[in-house]
Every structure is written in C-alpha cells, then in structure tokens.
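Problem: given the chain below (299 residues), write out its structure.
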Amino acid sequence: MTSDSMRGVFPILVTPFDEKGRIDEDSLANLVDFNIAAGVHGLGVAIGSEMFKFNEAERKQVTRCVVEATGQRVPVVINTGAGGTDLAVHYSRAAEEAGADALMIMPPAFLPAGQAEVRAYFRAISDAVGIPIFLQDTPAAPISPGLANRLVEECEQVRYIKVETLPVPAKVVDMVNAADGRLVVFGGAGGDYFIEELRRGSLGTMPFCSQPAAFVEVWDRFREGDERGAWATFDRWIAPVNRLAAQGGDVFYHVHKRILVRLGVIRTATVRGPTAPVDGVTAGEVDALLDDLYPSDRS
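Solution.
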C-alpha cells in the first residue's frame, strides 16, 4: 500500500472491548470493514483508540489486528509517540515491522521539552524508520508553523501534519501557508471544522469512526464543488453527534461506541477505566439522538 499521497478521510478507530475489558478482535475487524465499506481513504489507531490504556502486548495486538483486517485496502496510521525518545523509536519500528503505512507522533509533553529537544526527538524517529510520519499538533503539545518547517527540513520521513490546536481553521491556514506544499495538512479535533479546514487548504481529516459514510460524503461533495450539499450532510449527521460527544470528560468514547453498538458493528460500548460514567440525562440524550439518526436500527 503506497502512502506517499495520503488524502481524505482517515477515521481513528475506537478499540472494542468485551464485558471484562479485554480487546474484542472480532468487533475490531468488523469496525475496520465497516469503515472501508463506507469509502474511507485510510484508518488510524491513536488516542481515540484508548491506546494510552494498552499494555505492551495489547499495543502489538491491536496493530496486528487492524493491519491484518485492513489487508492493504487502505493505509493504516499508527500513533507511536512516547514520553522518551528511545521508547518512541521502539514503538515506531515495531509499528513499521507490523505493517503500518505511516506513523503519527506528537511532541513529548509529559515533561517540558524545548524546540531543540523536540527536533532531536523527531530526527531520531525519522532516522529509524522508512515510512512517513504525521506530526500531531495538539493543545497539549502544539507545533508552530516555524517548528513544522524545521522538522520537514531535518526529518526525511516527516511529510504530514494533523492540526488540532485551537482555533483550528486559523492554524490550518497558517500551516498551509508556511508549509508551501512541503507538508500535507490534515484536520483533526473530531472533524468539528472539517469544511472550514477544507476551505483553507487542508487535504484530509481524522475524525472518529462511527460515521465514516457521512464524512466521506462531505469530502466527496466538497471536492465536487457542492458545498451546500456538504454542509447539509455535516449538519444532519455529524454536528449533532459531535456536539453531544463534546459535553466533557471522555463522554465522546461512550457516544461513538454506543452508535457502533446500535449499528451492530461492535458488541459492547465498554470504555476502559478510568472513565467518567455517563449520567442518566446524558444517556437519555444519546438514546434520543440515536433514535433520530438510526431509527430502523434499534433492536
């Protein structure tokens, strides 16, 4: 699978767990198929996959399962960042060996790191692998356009960036202008500003994986020049879910997993602890939204 020209909708997969909190490989494979059948252009495993809750064996397990289930139909991007340079290099090499097509890495954020240390971190990872790297710009670990340019110059494998620092549309403009074609800019943050990002030069997004067909339709309509149709799809399908999922804490995991259970894609909506339980009012709001969006799928 070539990954030199990645563009479009790259959903970040949730990780399905069984009732005991173990990884449900069958549901994960179903989730991969569900997204590919919707026409997505790639898939990712990252923070939205609860990756930070995996042990070492589970990290390998999920990567292997996703790569095998994908079967080279679309590129697979694996988040391999870590708090230490050597550990990030280890995770990155392991992901490449397991068949990942690209890596996604944010600057180390657990302890303060200046630009020199961040550049050394990415150089070490880039020198250790032979697949492209997505920089991940987040509020916890922001990447300025100037730093992104330095990383492109110094790191052979740095070719993409996922922009999530608020205000995202403005940051996308700054990054697109600064990169001047040397760095492909993707949006993130759940796809909240997908259309605004596309208007400003982004070439993809990495949303959650519960509504892949809606995101692909927005992408297709926008690319065809039908911005009104893109907005209609976004406002009908994506905006209500994102609004509910943004109430606070990690409620977004519960919302997206409940959608996937309703659609019969995964077996349970289990979220690993620690997790903020969904209160009765929020649960009712989720059920009402699902009844509105997917009435015929209620069992």
